[in-house]
Amino acid sequence: MIGTLRFAFHDYVRSYRYVAPLLAFMTFLIFVYTVVPNPVMPSYSMTVSLTFLIAAWLGFGFVDAEDETQQLVGVLHAGGWITYFVGRWLLMLGVGACLTIFATFYPILFNKFDRQPGVEEVLSALAGHMGMALLGVGIAYLFTCRLVGKLNYAITGLVLVLSLSFAAGGIRESLPEGLSFIAYLLPPVFSLIDAFNRYETASMAEAAYALLAPPLYSLILLLVYLRLMKRKML
C-alpha cells in the first residue's frame, strides 16, 4: 500500500493537474475573508461548499491521470486492483485533509472571525470540511472516462450532480410529500450547509446527520466505484 501511495503521489505531482484547482481554492478562500469580521459557522458553510467543489475538481483530474497501460502496470505492482484503487483514493483523502486544515484554521489564525470559535465549532468545521472533501472526490470518481466513455458526457454528468446536490433542499420542498424522500438520495451537501447556517438553532439530530451523512455517502460511492471498476477490468 505504501508503494502504491508513493507511486500515485509522484505520478500526480508530475501531472500538474492539481495546480488550477488549488489556486482557485486558495484565491477564493482568501477573497471570502477579505472583509472582516465574519460570523463563524455561516462562513464555514461557504467554505465547505468550496471544499466540496474543489475536491470534485481534484478527484476528476486525478482519477484519469493515468492511461490504461499505466493503470494495468500499477495494479500489477500493487498486487491487486483493490490495493491499487484504494491506495489512490487514500491519496485523495490526504489532499482533502490538507484542504480541510487550511479552510478551518486560516480564518482562525488570521483573526477573520468576529470572535474566536469554540472547540465544538472547530471540530464541527473539521468534520464538515473533511466530509465534503470525501464526498466531492467520491462523486468525481464515478465520472471517470473509463466508466462514462466520453469526456464531455463525464463533465456534463458531474456538473449536473454537483448542481443537484446544492439544490436538494429546494427539490425536497417542491416534491409532493410522498415523494420527498427522493431528495435524500442526492449527495447530502445541502443538509450540512443548512446546519452550519442554523448552527445555533439546529437540533443535535440535525447536526449529527449533517456531519455523518457525507462520509458515509462517500464510502458507499467508493464501494460502487470499486465494484464498477472490477467489472471493467475483468
UniProtKB/TrEMBL annotation:
Keywords: Membrane, Transmembrane, Transmembrane helix. The chain crosses the membrane at residues 15-36, 43-63, 89-110, 122-144, 150-171, 208-228. This is Uncharacterized protein.
